[in-house]
Design brief:
363 residues; Aspartate Aminotransferase, domain 1; Aspartate Aminotransferase, domain 2; 17% strand; binds pyridoxal-5'-phosphate
């Protein structure tokens, strides 16, 4: 007899269901508040959205009936010029998320180890599980700094093929300490630096330009955060020269839509405007950090990103998140190892911070 349970690969049958955050429209229905009243500070999106020139270019897209360029030549060339690096090392994806999965599909034989340093971005372990990797953890210290000794021990013990490190890290916004990346590059492992939030960190923090010279460094970037294109799904990675031919073999041919690549190209052409908005968000983050410190039941962590993680002390963090949601303010709530009773607040415009602080005073 036909048995669907026998159809699904066993490791997927055993996986817990993924819990995505709820989309805007569903939240608006659930909270009984119009979308315009929602202040969405739960997914580190950019409150400014795409630049007007990007919206204009999208409205005028000429060839949406034609498949996109499988090699994303125009976007890779624009990225190469903007970042001053060879296009041959660049691959574009439907968000950095796609490239995390692509890398794992490239290197993982079932049971191979990968190294994860939680608390961190959930997709590393998620995609590791899907690809049948053995996800080994070298947890961060209580202040979220990397435990380099634990990382080195785990590399010796499990010989993981790669290590994922978000820099700045999500959910706390910390940067790796000086010297850590240099040290990792001397070890027998592929280091994947996820720089999704690097535009909000001090200038000079990126290691993108190192990639063409480093056989074991990958750097991932995205247009979701600094360019406000999260809904269009576009990111890129710089990969070592030796990996590129194999990545090209396994990439889905039409992974980046014409809308996404046009939006990304126009964003790069107008990058000076995005940089101004980025600096505004950093200023807002600094202001909000000090104002959050005034609540004696909140402990905000210093961040180099477009969000602030807070420990909620002596109060129920889930109840706090729910009360804020009732006021139309959405923040991310965490309750997992290393992140008990925490909320993460994305940086919005000044008026969003004002509304948040007013609501925090109310609860
Ligand atoms: C560390 C990190 N990397 C990657 C992503 C996803 O980027 P993208 O939207 O380009 O898939 C996120 C999104 O929250 C993130 O926090």
């Amino acid at each position: 007899m036909y048995d669907p349970a026998k159809l699904v690969r066993s490791h997927i049958l055993d996986m817990p269901a993924y819990e995505p955050i709820l989309p805007f429209e569903v939240l608006s229905q659930q909270l009984n508040l119009p979308i315009e009243r929602l202040i969405k500070l739960d997914a580190n999106e950019n409150p400014y959205g795409p630049l007007p020139e990007v919206r204009q270019a999208l409205a005028e897209l000429p060839f949406t009936h034609i498949y996109p360029d499988p090699e994303s030549r125009a976007l890779r060339q624009a990225l190469a010029e903007y970042h001053g690096m060879p296009p041959e090392n660049l691959l574009v994806g439907a968000g950095a998320d796609e490239l995390i999965d692509l890398l794992l599909r490239l290197v993982i034989e079932p049971g191979d180890a990968i190294l994860n340093c939680p608390p961190t971005f959930g997709m590393y372990a998620f995609d590791g599980d899907i690809n049948r990797a053995r996800v080994v953890a070298a947890p961060r210290r209580a202040d979220f700094s990397l435990d380099l000794e634990a990382v080195e021990r785990a590399i010796q013990q499990y010989q993981p093929k790669l290590i994922f490190l978000a820099n700045p890290n999500n959910p706390d916004g910390s940067l790796l300490a000086p010297g850590v990346i240099e040290r990792l590059l001397t070890l027998p492992i592929l280091a994947v630096l996820d720089e999704a939030y690097i535009e909000f960190a001090p200038p000079g923090s990126s290691r993108l330009s190192w990639v063409p010279q480093c056989p074991n460094l990958v750097v991932l970037r995205t247009f979701s955060k600094w360019a406000g294109l999260a809904g269009l799904r576009v990111g890129f990675g710089a990969f070592p020269t030796d990996l590129m031919p194999h990545l090209w073999k396994i990439k889905q041919p039409y992974n980046v839509s014409v809308a996404a690549s046009t939006a990304a190209i126009v964003s790069l052409q107008k990058a000076d405007q995005l940089e101004v908005l980025g600096r505004q968000l950093v200023e807002e983050r600094k202001k909000l950090f000090h104002r959050l410190q005034e609540f004696d039941w909140l402990q905000p962590y210093p961040s180099h990103s477009n969000f602030i993680l807070c420990r909620v002390v002596g109060r129920d963090a889930y109840a706090l998140k729910s009360r804020l949601a009732q006021a139309g303010i959405l923040v991310r709530y965490f309750n997992k190892p290393g992140l008990q009773d925490h909320i993460r607040i994305s940086i919005g415009k000044a008026e969003h911070s004002d509304a948040l602080l007013a609501a925090l005073k109310e609860v």
